[in-house]
Amino acid sequence: MADSMRRLTDEITSCTRCPRLVEWRERSAAEPPRRYVGEKYWARPLPGFGEARARIVVVGLAPAAHGGNRTGRVFTGDRSGDWLYAALHRAGLANQPTSLSRDDGLRLRGAYVTAVNRCPPPQNRPTTEERDNCLPYLVRELRLLRSARVIVALGAYAWTGSLLALAGLGAEVPRPRPRFAHAAETRLETSDGREWSMVGCFHPSQQNTFTGRLTEPMLDAVFERARALASG
């Protein structure tokens, strides 16, 4: 499995399927805001990060142009990651509450963090074609994470992408499709016999955290529920 994940990581980090996103990630690196001038950007697609035996998979939208695209690790170096990894630490799923760089010593315990899209999109809005170009990577990650049973979808885009990924693993997605909401849940079975639980969560973006739409207790409750489902 380790060799298969390494091969997948190599494929992801060398991907150029979406010309618009390639141009944007590289331009973001070449024209950084003042606070990051002089830093060497990763400026490549991002693989997931976490424990191979994870039972909980956290799925986001895409790396931030000056977060993961800069640091080389998903949800690292931006405000959303500050919220996410602090919550994972409080839930006992991470060894520390901060995520600053790829070599900061962060380790996940029973969790894996990834995204539907692997390059930062302008205005955080990938096109449908760009989503579908990237989706097979998420399908393959979920297949390789053999112990995984729970997906925490951060936002409506990740919710839809996760449903499509599970469909790619042979799950029959109900019609109408289960709707996203904070703390929404649905269950699906993939063709390999695995039963998956999905839990929705508002994305920990500043748009949600600064306005109080998402609070720390709300985020903690989602991961408490995810842990309960993963141990069931």
Describe what this molecule looks like in 3D.
The protein is an alpha/beta fold. It has one domain (2-231): Uracil-DNA Glycosylase, subunit E (3-Layer(aba) Sandwich), CATH 3.40.470.10. Helices cover 39% and strands 12% of the residues. It is built from eight helices and six strands. Strands 1-3-2-4-6-5 form a six-stranded mixed sheet, with helices on both faces. Helix 1 packs antiparallel against helix 5, helix 4 (79-90) packs across helix 8 and helix 5 crosses helix 6 (156-168). The radius of gyration is 16 Å and the shape is globular.
Give the ordered list of helices and strands: HHEEHHEHEHEEHH
What count of structural domains? 1
CATH topology-level fold name: Uracil-DNA Glycosylase, subunit E
Second-tier CATH architecture: 3-Layer(aba) Sandwich
Number of strands: 6
Q: In DSSP terms, counting alpha (H) and pi (I) runs of 4 or more, how many helices? A: 8
Helix content: 25-40%
Task: Look at the helices and sheets and give the structural class.
Answer: alpha/beta
Find the CATH superfamily: Uracil-DNA glycosylase-like domain
Broad shape:
globular
Name of the level-1 CATH class: Alpha Beta
- Major sheet: size, sense and barrel closure? 6 strands, mixed
Strand order of the largest sheet: 1-3-2-4-6-5
> End-to-end distance, in Å?
25 Å
Mean pLDDT: 97
**Low confidence ranges:** none
Give the C-alpha Rg. 16 Å
Question: What is the beta-strand fraction?
Answer: 5-15%
